[in-house]
Specification:
The complex is a heterotrimer of chains A (295), B (610) and C (238).
Chain A: H1 2-32, H2 39-55, H3 60-81, H4 91-112, E1 118-119, E2 129-132, E3 135-138, H5 139-161, H6 163-173, H7 175-180, H8 185-211, E4 213-214, H9 220-232, H10 238-258, H11 267-281
Antiparallel strand pairs in A: 1-4, 2-3
Chain B: H1 2-33, H2 36-62, H3 69-84, H4 87-93, H5 108-132, H6 140-159, H7 161-164, H8 166-169, E1 171-172, H9 185-203, H10 205-215, H11 217-222, H12 227-253, E2 255-256, H13 263-276, H14 281-301, H15 317-332, H16 346-353, E3 373-383, E4 386-397, E5 401-405, H17 412-419, E6 427-432, E7 435-436, H18 442-448, E8 450-452, H19 465-479, H20 488-494, H21 510-523, E9 528-532, H22 540-557, E10 560-564, H23 568-574, E11 577-582, E12 585-590, H24 592-597, H25 599-606
Parallel strand pairs in B: 5-10, 5-11, 8-9, 9-10
Antiparallel strand pairs in B: 1-2, 3-4, 3-6, 6-7, 11-12
Helix pairs in contact in B: 1-2, 1-9, 2-9, 2-12, 2-13, 2-14, 3-5, 3-6, 3-12, 5-12, 9-12, 10-12, 10-19, 13-14, 13-15, 14-15, 19-20, 19-21, 20-21, 21-22, 22-23
Chain C: E1 2-11, E2 14-24, E3 29-33, H1 40-48, E4 55-60, E5 63-64, H2 70-76, E6 78-81, H3 93-100, H4 106-119, H5 121-124, H6 136-148, E7 154-158, H7 166-181, E8 186-190, H8 193-199, E9 202-207, E10 210-216, H9 217-222, H10 226-231
Parallel strand pairs in C: 3-8, 3-9, 6-7, 7-8
Antiparallel strand pairs in C: 1-2, 1-4, 4-5, 9-10
Classes of the chains: A mainly alpha (295), B alpha/beta (610), C alpha/beta (238).
Chain lengths: 295, 610, 238
Amino acid sequence: MIELIQQIIDGLGRGGIYALLALGIAVIFGVMHLINFAHGELITVSAYTSYWLFASGLNWWFIAPTVIVVAVLTAVIIEFVAFRWVRGAPDFTMLMTSFGVHFLVQALFVMYVSANFRQFPRPGWIFDTWRIGGLSLEVFDLAVIAATLVTLLGTYWLLQRTMFGVSLRAAAEDFDTARLMGIRSNRVIRGAFVLSGVLAGVAAVFWLMRSGQAGPTAGLNPMLKGVLAALIGGLGSLSGAVLGGITLGLVEVLLISRLPGGTAGLTDGIVFLLIALLFVFRPQGLITVRRVERV
Amino acid sequence: MQADRVRHAVAPALGSGLLFLFLVAGSLLYAATGDAAANSLVTQMLINAVVVLGIQIYIGNTGVLSFGHIGFGAIAGYAFAICAISPERKLRQIPNAPFGLAEVDFTPLQSGLIAVTLTVIVAFLIGLALSRSGARSGAVAAVVITLALLFVVHEVARNWIDLTRGGKTGLSFSPLGNATLQGKLPIYLILLGAIGLARLFKETRAGRLAQAAREDDLAARVMGIDPAVQQMIALLLSVVVVSAGSALRVFELGSINPRLFFFDYTLLTLTMLIVGGRNSVVGALTGVLIITVGSELTRNLSEVDIQGMNWLLRDGLTDIFLGGAMLGFMILRPAGLLGDWELDHWSLRRLRRTEPPPVPPPSTDGDQTPTTVLKVTNVTVHFGGYQALADAGLEAASGEIVGLIGPNGAGKTTLLNVITGLVESDNGQTALGGVILTGVSPHVIARSGLARTFQNFRLFSALSVRENIGVVRLVAKHFRRDRPLPPVGALMAQAGLWEQRDRRASELDYGNARRLELARAAAAGPEFLLLDEPTSGMSDSESRAMIDQVRSMAKLIGAGVVVIDHDLNFITGICDRVYVLDQGRVIAVGTPAEIAANPAVQTAYLGTAE
Amino acid sequence: MLDIESLVTRYGTITAVRDVGLTVRAGEVVCLIGPNGAGKTTLLATVAGLLRPSAGRVTLDDADVTGWAPDRMLRAGLALVPEHRRIFSDFTVRENLLVGGITQPASRRHELLDEMVSLFPILKERLSAPAGYLSGGEAQQLAIGRALMSDPAVLLMDEPSLGLAPVLVDQVFDLIGRLREGGRTLFVVEQNAKRMLAVADRAYVMRSGEIVADGPAAQLAASEDLFETYLGQSGGTA
């Protein structure tokens, strides 16, 4: 029992980050039907930002907010440079475009920085644990869970209570009708990218605190986790994305603890396989998005 | 017939041969002028060409985006390496290999065949998964499944140390005595095979049907095409070529590790495919050439030292070039440089000039075929809480033209969708000549003898007029053998499309597009043509002309007609009997004159003034 | 108020609207009737900015608004109630209305919300219910209310009675009558010709992308050959 609670907490710590990433991907999919494989590049850029800021002698208290700002700027720039021009294009084109951005940003870092990973110090407290009863709680997991909760609540408030949130949700539900209500396409799509940037920025702070390294492919793993979580949740659905992220975190932790020794390295592969199977049998994801084809 | 053979076999085969000769001549010339590095570059390019052609067979014909082909390549590469490495080397590298693989000893050719066979078996399973997920052009599920394959294979290769020696070192051949491809003959043979297979597959029945489904999945289904089957054939063939290419790649490099067949190579091959044009064989090869030359140039440039240009000319320029090419083409020219143009298309113009005009076939006498009855009874459909059809039905006999009219929202198209299997009804039944078609897939219904058109027409837009009709006739030749099937030329002439026969469907104007959809439905050799608003958007004179069009087309193939329309002139002019639907119910049946005089019908259309 | 001159709209190779001209004056209820496929919805979509015209001019209060994007059209004073209502079904009724007023300053938006609630009492009880649970008639009222939230100079409606049970159709036409009494300028596309003509000032009949008849609503309604004009039986004009 204790063990299970322990694993659930660990899973939530992982899943929280995934949920933030997935939510950012779902927000963009909602407004422009694009699976943003370039979402991880926000993490890559954040990683290098952290590295450079550390090298200039700054600490996490300064770096964390800067990383979020940088992630937002990157998201907006990517939208402006690439995604704006393929709006409404066939799915094939949009998918390849987002892959193109993914590879191009990666190549830019290889070219102008280095193909090698660079280390930066992780905050000391992330290794602390609190012991309560039989549980050993990593302070880091608790921080992630708390930060995720705060961010999700903030996002929920933004989406539910502000006019920006209402227009974003309206555009996600029915883009043309949203335009008929006076919602400006450029503005709402840029808004979606800003929001996804903030979510990725928060996720990046914790991801980087744990990994403590920057490299051209630093964003690949978080991107995949985010996309997979969003896929579990049905892509268009925001609450689905959050649930998908949490589910993915829990499944990973449970798998790692239950896989026989020597196969733990296969966790990612097994998770991917499970999701592929999910798609074989439920192509629309766990949470069904209604879509009626008129003929 | 003769012209068809030239078009679909002789010209493509000759074109492929020519393409192969160009490639070989160019490669030999370049290699002859260069050093060992140039030689190796050419070899790599030719091997990449094989892999890209393999991917083209699948993505080009089906439109399904696969990120997993390099995963198939990894399976083939490892299978090849593990079979081909000599037992004494294996004993040093992977002494604990399972299944006694450490002792096996095969020649490279045998190893290649084993690799291809094994990979095709895996591909068959993946193909089943893809078709279960309903893969079609741009489908997300296909992207996920194929990406999963790429990742899972990669993870297994990294972690199954006993078999693969893991990710750090990988497996190596050299020195294997004859490790390099002597005289490159195997590469040339496999390349020739790949070009021929890719080009000719486009012209085979499976290839043409897959392309139709790529253009419009739904229209393909209601024309009797089962996309899953064609996609599976395309996948298996494509994997044969990709695995052969991958085995070559491993052989040439003399080693394999998991990174060799992962994201980077996926990016490289997909960019090659996209730049030249994914729907074309010559396009794929052009892409290979451009990207190889471009990468090589950027690689050399990055070593050049020019004052003030060092910010650009440096290591990594090649990757920028690749990523930039992919992104640039997607934004500016998503169909690639050549679109779907092939080398042998040169010959078509000549073929077209010498093409004799079609001889109109003797139209079938209505009495020859026994009367068949289409009987639709008690159909009820709910969408959520909304009742679209309430106990609706209709009956039509062959040789008859039956109209279906009613105000907007009355349920006419829904009834057609139920009949053709696109919408499931809560209850009710469709029977054609006594055979019950309720609960059957759309493509089976089409093969049983019902062909339809759509309100907002759905043509195979990138295919030519000839091909739109031809592809459906291919299906009909298989499943509707006992029906009169006029030649494609006659159908085009009948629809007044003879002059436009080689234009793309997307370039047709409205009236011609409508007539093409009619001719395409007729090509299916149906017992009944089901037409959804054939005159919508037409001018009065065009609609009048459509009366004769529909009549003579129906007569040509000896079919009955059920037609939805709003133009009463048209309905009156063409129909023997008319059903009137309102709010999902049949409110009147009768001759056009009876219907026009029926006050209930006027009320249904115009409403009542309270 | 709203002037459309020689408007042509094509989708690809399809010319759905051919050289259409019509006028809606302030305070008038004008309707456009005609069979399905006549191009009525395309015309409205063009006027609302969802489609770009290939030729012709749209002017609103003498300002040329041809080819403007929908959000700009809305700010200029043209609001469309789209076919099939297209309400945001995941939203509450209140949120749907608020989206409609998104171009208004916050204080004005809440004033308008109160106005809509008094205009459509049925929505008042449902303000915090998900709009997806509304019945067809309620949803139509919500769609109209949502469009009115932008306080438009001209309200465009596309098939407001489509897919509604007869008793709900009555409600919709009552509502159009009430809006007319309230002095609203309406341009309505409708298939229920007789009912529509009873509440409209003037009418246009469209067939095959062209205007084939027009005149005062009462005169058209009384015309013997309306049915023929409407469906093109004899190609006659009223």
